[in-house]
Design a protein that fits this description.
This protein is mostly helical and 264 residues long. The protein contains 13 helices and 2 strands. The longest helix has 29 residues. It is elongated, with a radius of gyration of 23 Å.
């Protein structure tokens, strides 16, 4: 099966060699020349397999529907779509559009809320860089579970903190709401940041990374394109209905709904 043989990336050869510790193992230092030759050989072999898959696919002339109608492609699409659904149900993508309003709920002025939103974006960038640098060390499953656990705790805490706070749509203004005060507002600010950190440790990077790695090479581009369209469709729906849910059944219930989805 050509697609199965070439379903891993070229960089996997580098990762496997770096993890193996070289030819000498623990008893002798690795030989740089032997490592370089072996790595070059593996990369050339994988490139040859990729070229063979491309040539075979062009000869067969298969369309997109028939190309993804394989067990490996169906399995990859199931994982990709599942991660996309859970990512949107976690609430963070939709909440990103209303971050300024949420910070205003914690008692900040509009100017301060804009500054907090910028700080949150910087925090997300730092976490994304950390994930990119440490993903191979921590592993996909561990990173996903850690991020979901952090996000679940933060979202549950937000559900309790915002209990009784009302989101009111006013025709004369974009939105008006009640405010949190004192230490409760400070804890809510921290929980918002922690929630974003958990999301970027888990769904933000891994939803695309894992889907890409599981997809067979022949159908990878098609699966990623379909998953991208699916994700943006879900994002549009969640952004449209998040204010509706915050109005009724309420902000606390909305955060609680997201927390239950994360625990599931």
């Amino acid at each position: 099966n050509e697609s199965a043989k070439a379903s891993f990336s070229v960089t996997d050869a580098c990762v496997r060699r770096s993890r193996s510790g070289g030819a000498g193992g623990l008893l002798a230092p690795p030989n740089p020349d032997a490592q370089s030759k072996q790595m070059k050989k593996e990369i050339e072999q994988e490139l040859a397999e990729i070229i063979d898959v491309v040539k075979t696919g062009s000869k067969n002339g298969r369309d997109c529907a028939s190309a993804v109608n394989t067990d490996a492609s169906k399995r990859a699409m199931t994982v990709a779509f599942g991660l996309s659904i859970m990512s949107m149900l976690s609430g963070v993508p939709a909440m990103s559009y209303f971050t300024k309003h949420i910070f205003e709920m914690t008692g900040h002025t509009p100017t301060a809320a804009s500054g907090m939103t910028t700080a949150l974006a910087l925090c997300k960038l730092i976490v994304t860089i950390f994930v990119a640098m440490s993903l191979e060390t921590f592993g996909r499953r561990r990173m996903l579970l850690i991020g979901i656990s952090i996000q679940g705790v933060a979202m549950t805490l937000l559900a309790f903190l915002f209990d009784g706070v009302t989101w009111i749509e006013d025709p004369r203004h974009a939105v008006s709401f009640q405010l949190l005060n004192g230490s409760i507002a400070q804890v809510a600010d921290v929980a918002i940041f922690v929630n974003a950190v958990g999301f970027h440790l888990s769904f933000w990077a891994l939803a695309w990374t894992v889907a890409n790695e599981l997809s067979p090479l022949r159908t990878r581009a098609t699966i990623m394109a379909i998953n991208s369209m699916f994700s943006w469709t879900l994002s549009t729906v969640t952004v449209r209905f998040l204010p509706v849910m915050m109005k009724s059944p309420g902000i606390s219930a909305t955060f609680g709904f997201c927390a239950v989805n994360l625990c599931a």
